[in-house]
Amino acid sequence: MRGNRRGIVYMALIVAVLGGIYLYTELQSQIMTKPPELKAFLSDEMQKEAQMGTYEWSSLGRSVIADSDHPANFTYTEENTVTASSGQRLYLTPLVESEKVPYVIQSVLVSEIGKPDSETKLDFSINGDAAVVSVPEGSGDFVYTILVDYEEKGKAVYGLEVLVDVLTYDVDKLLSLRTPYTGNASRLLEIVGELPLPGSGYLQRFLSLDTEMASYGITVYYEPKEELRNLLQYPTSEPENAVYQAMEKNALALLSLVENAGKITFQMKNEPSEGDLDQSSYEKRLSFTREELTEKYGPLDQILSREDLFRH
Question: Which of 13, 18, 122, 169 would you label with 245, given CA atoms 20 to 30 Å apart?
């Protein structure tokens, strides 16, 4: 009997503790002193947190008004910066339980970093609890401003830096990999591995070398990340889009670093590879020759030193 009573007492204590935790959690959800975080997702592996700006918030009879600068003028860290590619879908969602803190995402605006006057409205759709924005074409450093209405509790403005197809080159590292020979396969793999992808939706998996002809060639193969299957933006030359410009810069870098290379080719497809290289599955092809790029830019041996072309 004594053992049964002790078990009942223990059970009652456990229930009381769990009940206390539940009540504390409920109370905390009711006395939030400011709006919740807003998360940005490109995929399950790529999650960022937007910076909170101006907001109004009411809870248990208390009201808070916080004012801030325009999000275009915020200082962003890696945690608040998304690296995206044109055409990718960006998901924006506050971290709340909607039945406790109902909300409506009212608008998503985009401006150039440091230029709030350049602000324009973006179209978005709603998928579950998230606003879904298709990243528009055009490379650069942008800020997304998101306005969320938490209905009876207030409103909040959030800022998120979005780098769209911005290329950064480690010029010193690349110069250390310079080689006179296209046939130096291990060095070519290192060089290509150091080159920025032409868009964050791209993956580079294969490389082939043509050392049979006098004008030696290098072919780099690109495919989409899984979340951009059938959505990868291809390069266009008339007019030149950001992907074309990125591939041209990578061709300039390769021709500068591989002395006897005469032609750089990029091949692309819109489905991820499942095994070894299948050249027939690549439906898009873009080539640059040393002759045509030299005519356009001048001698290529020191082209990597041009900061107007290569972001260090």
Answer: 122
